[in-house]
Write a structure and sequence with these properties.
The complex is a heterodimer of chains A (297) and B (841).
Chain A: E1 8-11, E2 29-34, H1 43-52, E3 78-85, E4 91-98, H2 107-111, E5 118-121, E6 126-128, H3 138-142, E7 149-151, E8 156-158, H4 164-167, H5 174-178, E9 184-188, H6 189-206, E10 213-215, E11 225-229, H7 249-255, H8 257-280, H9 287-292
Parallel strand pairs in A: 2-11
Antiparallel strand pairs in A: 1-5, 2-9, 3-4, 5-6, 7-8, 10-11
Chain B: E1 13-17, H1 21-24, H2 30-39, E2 42-47, E3 59-62, H3 68-81, H4 87-93, E4 115-116, E5 121-122, H5 173-181, H6 186-193, H7 197-208, E6 220-224, H8 226-229, H9 234-247, E7 258-260, H10 267-272, E8 279-280, E9 284-285, H11 294-301, H12 320-332, H13 356-364, E10 370-374, H14 378-381, H15 385-394, E11 397-402, H16 419-423, E12 428-433, E13 442-445, E14 450-454, H17 467-485, H18 491-494, H19 508-516, E15 518-519, E16 523-524, E17 531-532, E18 550-551, E19 561-562, E20 565-566, E21 587-588, E22 616-619, E23 624-627, E24 711-716, H20 730-735, E25 740-744, H21 745-750, E26 758-762, E27 767-775, E28 781-783, E29 786-788, E30 790-794, H22 802-805, E31 834-840
Parallel strand pairs in B: 1-2, 1-6, 2-3, 6-7, 10-11, 11-12, 24-30, 25-27
Antiparallel strand pairs in B: 4-5, 8-9, 13-14, 14-21, 15-18, 16-17, 19-20, 22-23, 24-31, 26-27, 26-31, 28-29
Helix pairs in contact in B: 3-6, 3-7, 3-9, 6-7, 13-15
Classes of the chains: A alpha+beta (297), B alpha/beta (841).
């Protein structure tokens, strides 16, 4: 991947233009997770942990192979295991690698009130800049995939970076490198979309999965992590993958109409004061008023 | 593996049974995924549990543990009945047409002909071919006596085998095979295995679909691991797989074969180097007391060709004397002379079974006084951990070379042993810190027979030493003692060849060169005129001699370290054929051949069955076999000679029928129940189990009955852990923090058990405690009309490790549940099917 692909195109809560905007946009990156060839080996989990230098922590057995119930602030990549019965009674063990989806239209970024705490690069990666994070947690409520995690110790929020540090140096993300079966792929969005569609077609034609398809939800204008699912009509079966994710209305209202209404309110206030001044002139305080307030003895 | 890991990508159909490669061989499993993605290959997973392999399968069937032969026998029957067989392959490349001696009896009652109930062994003299010529259309009048007397000497194969190429003679192998498996109907398969008939038929139809309408282009593979071997009939399960692959013409072909997946990086190498007591390096049979001299020994172990007279058989093992003498020269150097039979007398002669379960039994009974345990954790491996711990209590000493403190070196601290009792244990334990895998160089042989050299990444820490240094120093000191003090028979020790530059620290590269072998005198190939000077490395085993002019530590490894250098260090990534042969990557035994028996990838005329997957072929112009792989064949034998492609068999063909006791328990596989089973054998209730299995007599050797222990239990490994090792590694412990027992939802409900509740799993031998993993991936089964539950538990946790030491684990090893009964051929214990009951703690 070229270094130019990590040029910033959006910045959270930032007034004014994005520095460098308009410079040629290189290709957009994409991670493809083919859940139909995932074997749940968790090599991606370990690779993520090791690359990002997070420590191993204590877990408890919870009637599943799944390492822990949800990702944590320092465990960004988690395979979700779900036993699922098909209509014909046959069993499936669905294994889905859960991580930040790197939305084209990121809810976290929309919700973030801290200037520069969340950025989106031209290559599509949505990255948290911890130095600017104020720990308000608004991004958590802005995310339709339940991904950002608050660290009480750091008082900041963390999530998968899509190995921005590796990608910017022309490497694939650590999870991709570790995957033994070729279930994970990394490339341009166009390539990955094509590969995913081809695989989905194969699953429909050859493997008896008539509803196989690609998960690249339109509600967030697509994502830079996409899935091939055996049953694209039922993403919820894969451990809480939302069927039609959107940025929450509250965030949308707040950051779009409400923000403008608010801004209009401020402008209206200022304008009102000015008009009032023009109409009535400066306020003149009468002597008897001052006396009654004890200002003049 | 007959084939290799990468070769799996060439297949059209995978039957994965007795193995769980997605979890236990995740890197190799990528090739299965490639076959699915690139060839639309189908994957059938048959397992007692729905595993992560099953999750990627096109079809999953839950089988009762230990009933694999019933299923595969049903598959044999289905293939024959539905004509999904490779007729031409069958006639020319297998012993289907060979006629079997009269007096041979199929095991309708559970026993083959020749069983001696007093000794519990078979006299296999009737398990032989009829002498004669072309018997097609002939009646039985030429038969030998119906009930021949037991022969005093071991039976030999006749040089001139009677045959019937029409496969119609009632005693030809094909007809006997058909008769043997006619009892394995879909209904019987359902009653025994618990797989509903229609599901069995679905799987049988799918698997045999590669031979639909006589098509020979498609190929299917059978993949297995220790889920097949760890039974009292394990070898015979694998034989059934071989029979199916021969019937369907899948052996020798890209994407085909019978493929054993090995559970460690170098377990194949360990086996090749005489990992079993009854073999010498390169699978030469170990000497027995009857082998009074070299000539007698060589006569016993060297087969003579046995075939229909118009056919040819290379009988490669006729070269056995060359391999054996070269091995003796490697072992004893100058002390091995023609006059003293190349020091054959130095070799130990085995007069009893010295396999794994016998070692522990002998130790318990005071016959084995000490043990050196390197690279393994004997207490945890089992079977019957409690018996092994009690055996170690009887030993005088124990040496453990390990990288972690393990259960074997701390057997005296096992749960249940009180401080008082510890005082009564007098075994002296020496724990030696060893180097880990990344701290040593050397070669590894993978499942695909690839011998690959690896380099040390870091030096061993602290006082840890390389295994070979420890062994070398023990040897040198013992040798010194013999030199000074003499002994009963010091010659083998004093004369052992130890020609390494630094005798106390042998370089493994020098050991590898010794294993490859070298010329001890100038050698000349009369045909080509090529000369190899004395002292030069040999280029291959074709150069080995039986006159003492060559030495070679393991004939199958000859060619790995030649004058041209270390072939096993090669890293060429060229693959001109696209079949994943990679001829210049490392080196594969034998002779850098990647697919064994690859002559069978061609029709009798020498043309590939599938022109898209050309491996080898007969080049008429050059009058030689050519190919993208090294032909596994006599290079100048034209198809018209009809030399059989299975050159390691004296018959030259694949064995549907395994004659003269090459397998102790029968020439065809027969379904026997595991020693602990919820049901009598439905084929022959009078003979439920393998009649050849020996039972031990210690107080720990208890077997459970189904009225007390009604649940079938199997053991397995998880992808997150590696044997008994990684419980010391925080990373792996985080992924799977605690031991658990997988139990079906219905069984949990019956017993009021919820997921994560602590439960006891009780067998006749012990109690294992872990948390319940309630899952739909195991379902109740109907076995002959009776509901049977099946549960499974991973083997990893024990009483030393992170969670064990922290007290978060009940500290019970899984193998304290398993029984000490073993396969009579490979001596592997039965860990994959035994009886238990469960209780809430």
């Amino acid at each position: 991947m070229s270094q130019a692909s990590t040029e910033i195109i959006r910045i959270s809560a930032h007034a004014g233009p994005v520095p460098g905007a308009g410079i040629d946009r290189e290709f957009q990156v994409c991670k493809l997770v083919d859940t139909t060839t995932c074997i749940g080996c968790k090599a991606c989990e370990v690779a993520c942990l090791e690359w990002n230098g997070y420590p191993f922590s204590e877990t408890t057995f919870a009637n599943t192979y799944q390492t822990m119930p949800e990702t944590t602030w320092n465990y960004w990549n988690l395979i979700k295991f779900n036993e699922h019965e098909r209509a014909d009674g046959s069993l499936m063990l669905l294994m889905r690698k859960d991580q930040c989806m790197h939305c084209e239209d990121p809810g976290c970024l929309a919700a973030c009130p801290a200037d520069g705490a969340i950025v989106q690069y031209a290559n599509g990666i949505v990255d948290f800049q911890e130095a600017h994070c104020i720990g308000c947690g608004y991004c958590i409520s802005g995310c339709p995939f339940n991904i950002p995690r608050f660290s009480p110790a750091a008082r900041k929020v963390f999530k998968c970076t899509l190995c921005n540090d590796r990608v910017s140096q022309g490497l694939e993300p650590a999870c991709i490198k570790a995957c033994p079966t070729g279930c994970l792929h990394f490339g341009t969005k166009t390539e990955m979309k094509e590969l995913a569609e081809t695989r989905a077609q194969q699953l429909r034609d050859q493997s008896g999965f008539p509803d196989a398809g690609v998960y690249d939800p339109a509600g967030v204008s697509g994502t830079h992590v996409i899935y091939v699912l055996h049953d694209a009509k039922n993403p919820e079966a894969y451990g809480g993958l939302p069927k039609d994710p959107h940025i929450p209305w509250a965030v949308q209202l707040w950051k779009k109409p409400l923000k403008w209404i608010g801004n209009l309110g401020i402008i209206a206030g200022v304008v009102g004061v000015f008009v009032h001044y023009l109409r009535f002139g400066p306020k003149v305080v009468r002597e008897d008023e001052l006396r009654s307030h004890g200002e003049i003895k | 593996m007959t084939n290799g890991w990468i070769d799996i990508k060439n297949t059209d159909m995978m039957l994965i049974m007795g193995g769980n490669p997605a979890e236990n061989h995740p890197c190799g499993f990528k090739w299965a995924m490639e076959a699915k993605r690139n060839r639309n290959a189908k994957l059938i997973s048959i397992d007692p549990r729905f595993t992560r392999t099953s999750a990627t399968a096109d079809l999953f069937l839950q089988i009762r543990a230990g009933t694999d032969i019933a299923f595969l026998g049903g598959l044999v029957r289905y293939a024959i009945e539905n004509n999904r067989i490779a007729k031409e392959y069958l006639i020319h490349y297998t012993n289907a047409a060979f006629i079997v001696k009269e007096g041979f009896k199929l095991p309708e009652d559970g026993l083959y002909s020749g069983f001696d109930s007093a000794s519990g062994t078979y006299d296999p003299s009737t398990w032989n071919y009829q002498e004669g010529g072309d018997w097609s259309g002939k009646a039985d009048t030429h038969a030998s006596p119906a009930h021949p007397a037991a022969s005093p000497s071991p039976p030999k194969l006749p040089p001139n085998v009677a045959y019937d190429l029409s496969l119609e003679h009632p005693r030809c192998v094909f007809q006997l095979l058909k008769q043997q498996y006619s009892r394995y109907t879909p209904e019987t398969v359902e009653r025994i295995t618990g797989i509903p008939k229609e599901q069995f038929l679905k799987a049988a139809d799918l698997f045999t679909s590669v031979r639909k309408d006589g098509d020979m282009k498609k190929v299917s593979t059978i993949i297995y691991a220790v889920g097949w071997t760890q039974h009292t009939f394990g070898t015979q399960i694998i034989r059934t797989a071989a029979i199916i692959q021969l019937l369907l013409g899948n052996v020798g072909r890209a994407g085909g074969g019978v493929n054993a997946l090995r559970g460690h990086s170098n377990i194949q190498g360990a086996t090749d180097m005489a990992g079993l007591f009854d073999s010498l390096p390169g699978y030469l049979k170990a000497p027995i007391p009857a082998d009074t001299d070299l000539a007698t020994y060589l006569k016993r172990i060297t087969p003579t060709a046995s075939k229909p007279s118009p056919w040819d058989s290379m009988n490669y093992y006729s070269n056995t004397p060359k391999f054996a003498v070269s091995l003796l020269k490697a072992m004893y150097g100058a002390a091995a002379t023609k006059e003293n039979g190349f020091a054959f007398d130095y070799l130990p002669k085995f007069d009893h079974d010295c396999s794994w379960t016998h070692i522990w039994d002998d130790m318990y009974n005071g016959r084995v006084k000490g043990m050196m345990a390197f690279g393994m954790n004997g207490v945890m491996i089992g079977p019957d951990t409690t018996k092994n711990i009690n055996a170690l209590k009887q030993a005088d000493w124990l040496v453990v070379g390990e990288i972690y403190p393990d259960e074997t070196s701390e057997f005296w601290r096992a749960p249940g042993i009180t401080a008082e009792e510890q005082k009564t244990i007098h075994t002296t334990v020496y724990r030696l810190p060893c180097a880990g895998f990344a701290e040593k160089d050397g070669s590894m042989t993978n499942s695909a027979r690839w011998v690959t050299w690896k380099y040390a990444a870091v030096p061993p820490p602290g006082e840890a030493r390389l295994d070979q240094d420890i062994v070398a120093q023990i040897f040198l000191r013992v040798q010194d003692l013999y030199r000074k003090e003499g002994g009963k028979f010091p010659d083998p020790i004093l004369n052992l060849s130890w020609a390494y530059a630094d005798s106390a620290h042998p370089a493994l590269s020098q050991v590898a060169m010794e294993v490859n072998g070298k010329a001890l005198a100038d050698l000349k190939d009369e045909k080509t005129g090529q000369v190899i000077k004395a002292g030069q490395q040999l280029p291959g085993f074709a150069w080995l001699k039986d006159d003492g002019t060559t030495m070679c530590g393991n004939w199958i490894y000859c060619g790995m370290w030649t004058e041209a250098g270390a072939q096993i260090q090669r890293r060429g990534t060229e693959d001109p054929s696209g079949l994943g042969v990679y001829p210049n990557w490392a080196w594969s035994w034998p002779a850098n051949r990647r697919v064994l028996y690859n002559r069978a990838s061609c029709n009798p005329e020498g043309r590939p069955w599938d022109p898209e997957r050309k491996q080898v072929w007969w080049n008429e112009a050059a009058r030689t076999w050519a190919g993208v792989d090294v032909p596994d064949f006599k290079p100048d034998s034209p198809p018209s000679d009809h030399m059989g492609p299975f050159i390691m068999n004296p018959e030259g063909v694949g064995r549907l029928f395994a004659p003269i006791g090459v397998l102790a328990d029968g020439p065809f596989p027969e379904h026997y129940e595991p020693f602990e089973s919820p049901t009598p054998n439905l084929l022959h209730p009078e003979q439920s189990n393998n009649p050849l299995v020996k039972k031990f007599q210690t107080p720990y050797d208890k077997l459970g009955k189904p009225d007390e222990f009604s649940i079938v239990c199997t053991t397995y490994r998880l992808t997150e852990q590696y044997h008994y090792w990684t419980k010391n590694n925080p990373m792996n412990v985080q992924l799977i923090p605690e031991p658990f027992v997988e139990i079906p939802v219905e069984l949990a409900e019956e017993n009021g058990i919820r997921g994560t509740d602590r439960i006891k799993v009780i067998s006749a031998r012990g109690t294992y405690i872990a948390k319940a993993f309630v899952t739909r991936r195991l379902k109740p089964m109907m076995i002959d009309g009776k509901k049977v539950y099946q549960i499974g538990l991973p083997i990893h946790q024990g009483f030393r490790g992170i969670t064990e030491d922290e007290g978060r684990d009940a500290r019970t090893p899984a193998n304290l549940l398993t029984p000490t009964v073993a396969d009579p051929n490979a001596h592997t214990p039965e860990s994959k099917g035994f009886l238990v009951r469960i209780e809430k703690v």
